[in-house]
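Sanity check. The docking grid for adenosine-5'-triphosphate depends on where the pocket ends up, so I'm generating a full predicted complex first rather than guessing from homology. Inputs follow.
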Amino acid sequence: MHILVAGLGRFGRNLAINLTRLGHDVIAIDQDQGEVQDIAPDIESAVTGDATDEDVLLEIGAPDVQLAIVAMAEVEASVLITTHLKNLKVPMVFAKASSDVHRTILERVGADRVIFPEQEMAVRLAQSVEAPRAMDYFELLPHLGIAQIPAAAYAGRTLASMDLRGRYNAAVLAIKRGNELVVMPELTDRVQDDDVLVVVGRDDQLAEIVDASA
Amino acid sequence: MHILVAGLGRFGRNLAINLTRLGHDVIAIDQDQGEVQDIAPDIESAVTGDATDEDVLLEIGAPDVQLAIVAMAEVEASVLITTHLKNLKVPMVFAKASSDVHRTILERVGADRVIFPEQEMAVRLAQSVEAPRAMDYFELLPHLGIAQIPAAAYAGRTLASMDLRGRYNAAVLAIKRGNELVVMPELTDRVQDDDVLVVVGRDDQLAEIVDASA
Ligand SMILES: Nc1ncnc2c1ncn2[C@@H]1O[C@H](COP(=O)(O)OP(=O)(O)OP(=O)(O)O)[C@@H](O)[C@H]1O
Ligand SMILES: Nc1ncnc2c1ncn2[C@@H]1O[C@H](COP(=O)(O)OP(=O)(O)OP(=O)(O)O)[C@@H](O)[C@H]1O
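Predicted complex below; grid placement will be based on this.
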C-alpha cells in the first residue's frame, strides 16, 4: 500500500520502518530535518515540512495514499492534520493519541482508528503481570481472551486429565509444539514438556492456570 | 502483588492505574509533584522524590516489593534506578526503553524484561495494516497467528459452506457475538451479521480472507 506517516517520534519512526519491511511504500513527513535525514535511507521517501499545511500535504501526494497515520502527541497539530487528510479523501486515517481526551477529539474529527501506544502497552503489560508466566495475552472481550501458557507442569498428561474446562472454564484451542501448531487438539492428546498451550478463558481464570502450573 | 512504579509519564501512569484495577498494591514515585498529586487518589500510594537516590528507594520500601517497573525515557536515570533495584534484591525489575541501544543497556544491567511501548505498538499496528480490516492479530509463531475478522460478508452462511479450511487452510477457533464467545463452533453454525470470527492461520492467508470479505 501507499502509506503516509506524519511525525517521526519513536512511534512514527518505528511504524514507518516496519511498514516498509512488510513491503509497503511509505512516505514520511516531519518538520525536524534531522529526523527526516536519519530515516530517509530506510523508507520510500522522507520529506521535511509542516504537515498542518494543506498545501504541503497536497505537494507530497497525500490524496493518493490509501492510509495515513498521524503520529504526534500534540493535540492541535494531530487534530488539524487528521482533519485535512479526511478532507483530502484519504480512505483510512489512523492517529496517535497522547491522552483519553485527545482520543475522543480524534474520533470526533473522523480518525478511522486511534492508537494510544503508551496506554495500550501499559494495559497489556498489566494483564501479563497478572499471569506472570503467560507468554502473551490477546483480548477478545473485556476480561475474556487467549493466553499462551507453557505446559511443562502438565508434561505427559492428556488434555482430558487436565480438565481445564471443568476446573477453569477454559478451552485449549491449539498446542504450539516447536515450530508446529496443533489446532483444536483431541482430548486424548498428551502434552509434551516444551509445549505451549493456546488457551481461551476469563483473564483471572487464565492467571490461575498459570499460577497453578508454576 | 506489591509493585513499585518509578516514573509517571504516559506509560508509567497508565501502568500504575491498570495494575491497581487488577487488584495489586502499587506505590509510585516521580520527581514531579503535580504528577504525584494527580495519581494519588487512584493508587495505593504516590511519593514525590528522586528515584535515582538509593536512600529514597529504601525509604519508600523498594526492597519489599515483588515487582518494580522503571518507566522513564532518559537512559541514565532508568539504568541507574534499575541497577539500584537489582542490588536491593527486588525479585523482578522491568524497565521501559526509548531506543534499541537503551534496551541493550537495560538488559546488560539485569532488567528482567524490557518494554519499548512505541516500538512494540508500531510493530503490532504495522502487522494489522497488512490485514487491514482484521481487528487485531496475535502472533503464535513466525507468520502464523490468530486474527479477529469481521464476518459481515458471510452473514447467513454456515461455517461449512465458507470452507475456510479448504480455501485458506485456516480454522475458526471461536465466534465473538456481541458480548458472548462461542468457542470451537460447529461447522453447521450460521454466521450472523455482527459476528467477529477468531481465526487461526498463516498471516498472508488471514490477510486474503479479510480482502476477500471486503
Ligand atoms: N506540524 C508538524 N509537521 C510535521 N511534523 C511535526 C509537526 N508537529 C510535530 N511534528 C513532529 O512530530 C514528531 C513527534 O512529535 P511528538 O514529540 O509530539 O511525539 P511523541 O508522540 O511524543 O513521540 P513518541 O512517539 O516518541 O512518543 C516530532 O519529530 C516532530 O518534529
Ligand atoms: N530521577 C527521577 N526520579 C523520579 N522521577 C523521575 C526521574 N527522572 C524522571 N522522572 C519522571 O519520569 C517520568 C517520565 O519521564 P520521561 O519524560 O522520560 O518519560 P517518557 O518515557 O517520555 O514518558 P511517556 O511514557 O509519556 O512516553 C516524568 O514524569 C519524570 O518526572
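Relevant for the grid: The mean pLDDT of chain A is 92.
Also worth noting: The domain at 2-117 of chain A is CATH 3.40.50.720 (Rossmann fold).
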